[in-house]
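As a next step, the fold was encoded as tokens, giving this record:
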Amino acid sequence: VFIYFFSAFCFFVMKQEYRHFLELRMDFLGKGTRANVDPQHQYSLKVENIPTELRSDTALFEYFDNLFPGKVHSASVVLNIPDLE
């Protein structure tokens, strides 16, 4: 009988902790913690199949800055160069 009560208590505590974790996680994902997370890391995008004329940092930045004026922090192009490996 003790095992049933102990198991029920453990499940109850785990459920309460999981609810608390979800609350903290949703708060973090919604707002982030300004002291620990750089906004650039929180709002980064990965864009693939970029046209050749936009395959430079400045060209890509200007393109997205024209689409979203004043909202673009930076743009970085990472090239896939398998011959260097």
